[in-house]
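Example 3.2
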Amino acid sequence: MLPQVLFAAGGPGTLDLDTDTRSWVLVGFLTFIVPILLICVLNGPERDRVDDFYTAGRGLRPVQGALVLTGVYLSAATVLGTTGTVAVFGFDGLFIALCTVLSLGVLLLLSGPLRERGSYTLGDTFALRAPGPSVRIAVAVVTLSACVPYLIVQLSGAGRTTAMLLGLSGPGAEQTAIVMIGALVVCATAFGGMRGMIAIQVIKTVILLAMAVAVAAVLLHRFHWSPDSLIEAAGRGSGRPEGYMRPGLRFAASSPVEGTLDFIGLMITVVLGVACMPHVATQLNTAPDTAAARRTVRHTIVIVGAICLLTTVLGFGAAALIGAPKILAADPGATSSLLMLTGDLAGGSSAQTGEAWLVVLVSCAVFLTTLAVVASVTLAAAGSVAHDLVTHVVRRGRTTEGREVAAARIASASVGVLSICLAVWVQGWNMGFLSTISLALASSCLLPALVYSLFWRGFTRRGLLWTLYGGLGCALGLQVVSPVFSGSPMALFPEWDIAWFPLQTVALVSLPVAFLLGWLGSVTGQRRAAALPEQPVGA
């Protein structure tokens, strides 16, 4: 979820910037974003070929592929959330940043088998083991269930941030920004396809890395390039210097047992969920072969590790210069910390033209990061609808490449419009539930299904369906009766109280349940097949 930031004199939801700086932000948007989206559209496939639209011809070399995969992998919520978590929770935030990098280790283990299947969607991957429309329908349901909430969160945050940076306020301004941003992304996705996504992701990664390096350099210069001084100041600014660099602050309000379980569940969700999000897993199909896919992930680990290291430095800086109490007062989710830190480093409302470039750079990086992730998630969801449902379920494979690409473009527009409408509708709600449910579904449904499909020969269609639907039902059901849905001030519906499940993270339960259901469904299916009498020839 993207930030709400304080104006010095205005209250929540605003940023302490003068008119000139806001003008520079607008100029930066027009200078960077509009040409980039135009490049995305112009770089789209010249012909209506399925391979070009979904995988860009499978021609990405490892370095270029790593830049693209980094852009797909790192969302604005990840960058801003990591910075805020480090600023507020210290050691726990460092561990979450580490888990973000470790998740790529899971992707590295899956990269070879995934690319070897040479598929367009996850439905193709699963259909090799268990062909049939029922499997493709199940995969499409899970894909949309994970992607649509993720899109809502990203679009909602993008609208809030854009309105805030341009000095606008109120629900109407934020909703207008959501519609405008969503329309741009829908056009870029529908016309650009994967080739267009490659252009926008490479540019996004370069700008994001440049932003992180620039802000970290300005920050460290203020502390005379002494990491020890920075960390000591961060501990004082956190308000809890004795526990800042010790584990346990993230869930300190819970009981020791529940806090520990929630923290372990959060680590599992991040490590296993991010790597298995549909738009991340399918990105490996753009590599020429399995060896290139593995090298792509290895290069991505280096780039993502560098960015996560820089964001932890920025988190310490936010705690040291802004202070955790002020960050939490502005935004209980602490995702405002990066923009608040940048405003402080640039001089706040007294920023000069020479200093405003830092705010412009951060604003464009955050905005472009959101656009890039929304585009990649939209493309993954549209691919599942067009390729799995329309081509293989409705048309039973009897179609042409041109018709499938046309269906994918229509699906991109449909998924985008649906997400825009839902993001406008829920604007102002607490989005923590939607963020949590996307990763919970990826870790509880897609990961067990992928592990079984890629590495267990005894996995059957029944086991696959039980894994997908069972994991989906368990994760959704437990999340609805958890404290992130109701019964707490930070819940989606704080006035309700149906939270009988004590944990905020559900992966500790839903993940083993999905694995168990997959095994049980496969074993019972095999026994049933073995028990059937052999039919005589010609019967």
